[in-house]
Amino acid sequence: MSTHEARLKALREQLLRDRLDGFVVPLTDEHMSEYVGAYAQRLAWLTGFQGSAGAAVVLPEAAAIFTDGRYTLQVREQVDGNHWAYVGVPETSISDWLAEHAADGARIGYDPWLHTSDWVAQATRALAAKGATLVAVTANPIDKVWADQPEPSDAKLSVQPDELAGKSSAEKRHEIAEWLVAHKAEAAVLSALDSIAWAFNVRGQDVDRTPVALAYAIVHADATADLFVSTEKVDDEVALHLGNGVRLMDRDAFETGLERLAGKRVAVDPERAVAAIFETLDKAGATVLALRDPAVLAKAIKNPAEIAGHKAAQARDGAALSRFLHWLSVEAPKGGVDELKAADTLRAFREETGLLRDLSFDTISAAGPHAAIPHYRVDESSNLPLEMDRIFLIDSGGQFADGTTDVTRTVIVGTPTAEMKDRFTRVLKGHIAIATAVFPEGTNGGQIDGFARQYLWAAGLDYAHGTGHGVGAFLSVHEGPQRIAKPSYPGGGPSEPLRAGMFLSNEPGYYKAGDYGIRIENLVLVEKREIPGGEQTMLGFETLTFAPIDRALIEVGLLSPAERAWLNDYHAQVLALIGPQLEGEAKAWLEGACKAL
């Protein structure tokens, strides 16, 4: 089955054999992960879609792929519209589409290990309105027809040292135990891979770009834990690190472990745990408490060791990015640089640090019209050259043992148009507005999201993604619960109050379909701010990312004196931190790039 058309046909034939009239295909794994291992890339295998968020529904005579505003252009480039309808979310939900298109009395299959209980309940209600039913499958029909489906990774776990983690695994388990006692619970199920990595101070290589291992965990109120992970992945060093308080069991024994919680009060996160976990506990007779994973907020609020590590990672990453930007300034105008070469060159500069573990996501190396696709991913078939007088956008990051980075820079190769400069400067003004924001404790990201958009709104413009996401400490580059976003946008929804110690991105943008795109992204740290004469506890942001912002794209007259002062001060910090790490022509270029406006 070399074509996606053939794969769709094979799936429909399998659904007939399984007595199903449709099937829902999400882009996730058994842990509700954003980035998944190769074995779980069912949506990409079936449709060709390479984005990091989406879903599909296959019916006998119709099929649809669901993506949000970040992928409006990308999905049309990668998925054949002759076989798939393009559906935008959240404007139309999968449940709503099924209710409209499924036949009366249809049996629509779903994999209970790939959906939340809330989604199952919602879809069940929507289908019931027309006499259709949602059917849990015991074996995923895509797995039955995907002949060369990769096996899950067998990579070994590694220890995240306490000096980088800032707290031992035993301390973290005791804090979770205290949380359990406070909530009158006897155990908590951890199924999110980054929560498990954080709680046990381990890392893995089972998911590209995210240093996690495929595992489940049950933490008990006595601070002991059961860790369900393939035993061949745990060597003596990791076993010694985990200690006697952690019982190691094979990942395949997880369902049995859940059944042993019969009669107990068990905390399970409805947002991060799949429906099958809830169903297994219900059948076993456990009392399920729908509570947020106790690691989520603790993981989001970084301790001093994690903050110090992140700043060290940012310093070396900023130097690698600055070397790349210098290289680009020399080579791009000559011709011969394309999106793949640019991405490979930036990775090489990061690798020269000797400390890069992985990228933190697939680099978005986007020339000209591709820059208008917020989550574009280049491959051999889409690769474009960097051309004169066109914008080039590169969004990238690295995984280092002491920190996870994520940074976007937009540059002009040649001379920008007046419109490009206007749009870039409006994005920059919004970026500065977030960077300099001061707000009372208890404020959530949704309340300040408009700060970044106001200058675009004034010109009748906007962007269809959130302004900021949380970032992990040598963990997921997209980490909750903190975010800066409209409730209706990706990463939106109920918003978490921002707290001192949280990392977030600051990344407003602008995208002109078919022409160019702009995004300026730095990472920031929420910190307390002392306001003379103030009556409330106030918070603000410390910028953590340091690399030059392209002065050639700035319409200086659009900046206020305070904004110019911020940019000049920022570039002075870039030069002070990054300059000593560069030499020769690269250092001279940086001095020019950081020159005061």
UniProtKB/TrEMBL annotation:
Q: Where is the Peptidase M24 C-terminal domain?
A: 538-597
Write out the entry's keywords from A to Z. Hydrolase, Metal-binding
Keyword Secreted (UniProt): no
Keyword Ribosomal protein in record: no
Q: Which residues form the Peptidase M24 domain?
A: 310-527
Gene Ontology CC annotations of this record: cytoplasm
Listed InterPro entries: Creatin/AminoP/Spt16_N, Creatinase/aminopeptidase-like, Creatinase_N, Pept_M24, Pept_M24B, Peptidase_M24_C, X-Pro_aminopeptidase_P
Q: Which Pfam families match?
A: Creatinase_N, Creatinase_N_2, Peptidase_M24, Peptidase_M24_C
Q: Which GO terms describe its molecular function?
A: metal ion binding; metalloaminopeptidase activity
Q: Where is this region: Disordered?
A: 148-168
Domain (Creatinase N-terminal) spans: 7-139
Q: Which SUPFAM superfamilies does the annotation name?
A: Creatinase/aminopeptidase (SSF55920), Creatinase/prolidase N-terminal domain (SSF53092)
Say which family it is in: Belongs to the peptidase M24B family.
Instruction: Identify this protein by name.
Output: X-Pro aminopeptidase
Q: What is the source species?
A: Sphingomonas sanxanigenens DSM 19645 = NX02
